[in-house]
Amino acid sequence: xxxxxxxxxxxxxxxxxxxxxxxxxxxxxxxxxxxxxxxxxxxxxxxxxxxxxxxxxxxxxxxxxxxxxxxxxxxxxxxxxxxxxxxxxxxxxxxxxxxxxxxxxxxxxxxxxxxxxxxxxxxxxxxxxxxxxxxxxxxxxxxxxxxxxxxxxxxxxxxxxxxxxxxxxxxxxxxxxxxxxxxxxx
Length: 186
Fold this sequence. Notes:
globular; TIM Barrel
């Protein structure tokens, strides 16, 4: 109700809140990276280019960009993602152009479907495919990494763990600092 007034009249409060939020997100990113390393999981940023830039600065490699919002060719080149989801002929042509310049990118071939718990990857492995990557969802906590690794996950994405805003926090305190969601006014 008073957010517009606070933004307009108390710039120092807003700037301080933004700085504290950034510090907490960076601390969460470092924690997630360390927990992933302990359990043999790659912690890779997935999502929009602006979030990928921030997690990249915190020490996480960019994993998959484009699965939520298609990105520009310039962002794809700058972030050098391990995987890039392409939708449509234009983005596919961009990925081909990158490959022709010698940059290898994994283009995801299958996604999660209702009731599918790593079974597609297990079938691919049984069919002789190797070096499979199984990405686990981001709506949990680093306390789940051991179980995810045991279930066959090889990658985790920070997702809402970065901001400590998953539903699990309604039931118990978890290691990630809750920092809430960003609010834009204008």
